[in-house]
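question for whoever is on the cluster today: can someone run the full assembly for these? two chains, 763 residues total. i dont have access anymore since they changed the login thing
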Amino acid sequence: MKPAMRLFSSLAAMSFAFTLAGCGGGISGAQAMTSAEGSQHGDFGPPQGEPIHAVLTSPPHVPPPTHRKAPAKVIVDLEVIEKEMPISEGVTYTFWTFGGTVPGSFIRIRQGDTVEFHLKNNPNNKMPHNIDLHGVTGPGGGAASSFTAPGHESQFTFKALNQGIYVYHCATAPVGMHVANGMYGLILIEPPEGLPAVDHEYYVMQGDFYTTGKYREKGAQPFDMEKAIDEKPTYVLFNGAEGALTGDKALSAKTNETVRLFVGNGGPNLVSSFHVIGEIFDRVQQEGGTHPQENVQTTLIPAGGAAIVQFHTEVPGSYVLVDHSIFRAFNKGALAILKVDGAENKAIYSGKEVDSVYLGDRAGPNLAAVSHATSAAASGKLTKEDQVKAGAQLFSGTCSVCHQANGAGLAGVFPPLAKSDLIAADPKRPIQILLRGLNGKVTVNGKDYNSVMPPMSQLNDDEVANIVTYVLNSWDNPGGQVTAEEVAKVRAAPAPAPAAGH
Amino acid sequence: MPWLRLLGNLWLVLAIGAGHAVAADYKQIAGGHFASVLPADEKAADMQVAPYELRVTPVSNAEFLAFVTKSTEWQRDRIARVFADAQYLSHWITSDGIDRAQRDQPVTHVSWFAAQAFCESEGARLPTWLEWEFAAAADTARKDARADPAWREQILSWYSRPSNSALAAVGGPANVYGIRDLHGLVWEWVDDFNALLVSTDSRDQNDPDRLKFCGAGAMSLRDLNNYAVLMRIAMLSSLKAADTTANVGFRCTKIGAGEKS
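^ ran it for u. tokens below:
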């Protein structure tokens, strides 16, 4: 910086102190000076006043705005803790954490602040650790100055020159393993004027995880270096665990509110295609960019990068946060929920207005057996063979997408119908399942499944009877016959308590 | 409670007796060519390991207690701060008394200086990294089991457990040389611990100015996939000689007949 400019910036710093007292309106010197001008203009001179201890928060919470008008000295105390935590239902993993959570504690400071960073390595830890903050200007981002043995503490100081949202992570050898074990988080360096007020701020960070066992394989799962090198994760997660942001832990907002998400990606390997199903981001600020992108459907969050996304809620309901590399969402766990409460707004979104029958190719000749069965039933001459033939055709239209044409299902996702011990145990149960759906955990042929089958309420009694009869007489199932009357009875009966649900 | 302390002191007396009665067990290791993860020429050359004798087990609390009872300048309330940090032997009940349960556990919370002094009292010294690595490459049947994924798995499963539960007693299964507990119990000091890693930021391994960090000891890792060993090097290089931690112990190497001291 040229001397003349330095003089100018320290004058500007002094003027902040005055505006703080006066609380005057208008554009502050900081705004005029810093927009999009980078690190050269982020030095507002020496810190003012007494040192401040930074408020750190666990995800998904974000510390309150600093509301500071002058550069401060900020002390950050961050402890590294190695601990076993759930990564999925019934599955644990030994995470290495900044502050006891994955992602690590959220740090919020203001551009121009001088940060005195204390990295503490818990005495019970086995590994040395350090920290590389992408918000630091200097070799290693602090890594070389913070290399810390268990039971020790390191200190270094930096000035936050660039505003923006930045990743921090551990950079101790083997770096990839430390990151894969959850050692990352976000630091927000507010612009001098602060961020505009919003109704909610949340902290969401994606990471990929590599375990020796398969996805959802129970027990304590160790880290798998081979899978990590091959970049084939077992889990892709928001906030370090499957279910970290769903159910009771879902993010929440009301209608007509503005939500700001600080979204980071720790990696170590995958790039995220971050998307919120049912929302359009009004603004996306990549890293420290001062030219936000508007009206974004899906935004890229690189490994070791972050963005601030903002949107306004209009319609109540559950909005699903996903990595739109979509198998990661539904087969590796990259899924979170934002629950929006409030009054419906039918002018913007109606909900389902029409649910009528659409026959499509069912009306065609390939459903001849179905038509035959229908007329045979009407004349009282329906045989089991008619039912099996009709059921086979209905099955291929309605059921085979998930349960497969050969009834084998899909391992871990859709249970098999072939040689099914669940059907053998109660051959009438499929009627119930077709009519009411099946939600939650079920064990078939010794394997656990935990997904959702919606009720097939579009099928009439004849069709259900035919499908179930087909299934009972296929693939080594016990055989038997189901009549439309039986189906009608089940349909009329009140839903059994446990299956009630929603 | 005073009577508890009395019991502790009673144990102290027994410990001294035991320490004198049984000399520490060492095993001869012939040495030879060895593909260290830190190659001799910084590229791929094998190291030549001279014959040496390695202590069978890490030093236990009882053994270290016997040492500080004789050499009182190494007791925690007498030691000079430059030789050990404030956590030195902090897990003991008193400066000269340990809990009965700690007797056979490996001693931890010891500095490099204290470890070196103990070894001298046994007519020995700390092993070099190369000597330690050579013996630790073995498993129960082979002299070099490092290519076996099972060997790495076993090491890593220990790494992945935080050390917040009590340490096991020394005397685990012997490897092919008859040496025990090289893996799965504690980290161990080596003589040249501070010459292992090129810099405190492991990522700039090819930086031309790396020599400034540790001079002639600057080395690069040959086998980056052998991250089980890499992590041990990272751990050792995070330490300073006066540092102590809850999971760094040590064992000694006897100065052999052909070696000048």
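summary bc i know u wont read the tokens: The helical segments of chain B are 2-21, 61-70, 112-121, 129-136, 149-159, 211-214, 227-237. Strands of chain B lie at 26-29, 32-34, 47-49, 52-55, 124-125, 187-188, 248-249, 253-254.
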